[in-house]
């Protein structure tokens, strides 16, 4: 099953590049099929409102916000594995 990973960022956020880098790194390492979208909340404010986001970085898996702030690598991998099971 494809896991849709959405990374919400803002240009002024000092932690957002780290979250994007983490997701890209995990994508390269995992066997799960990941579809990654990077969403700048300054460009797509509607999507951020839809998810009720008040802070970035935030990571949603299959339409559910799982992390606000950058998670640890292992924590992200486990959440993706869980999401891939449906």
Automatic annotation (TrEMBL):
Per UniProt, residues of the Thioredoxin domain are 1-85
Give GO terms for biological process: cell redox homeostasis
The UniProt keyword set, sorted, is: Electron transport, Transport
Query: What Pfam families has UniProt attached to this entry?
Result: Thioredoxin_3
Q: Which PANTHER family match?
A: GLUTAREDOXIN-LIKE PROTEIN, GLUTAREDOXIN-RELATED
What NCBIfam families does UniProt report for this protein, alphabetically? Answer: redox_disulf_1
Know the name of this protein?
Answer: Redox-active disulfide protein 1
Source taxonomy lineage? Archaea, Methanobacteriati, Methanobacteriota, Methanomada group, Methanobacteria
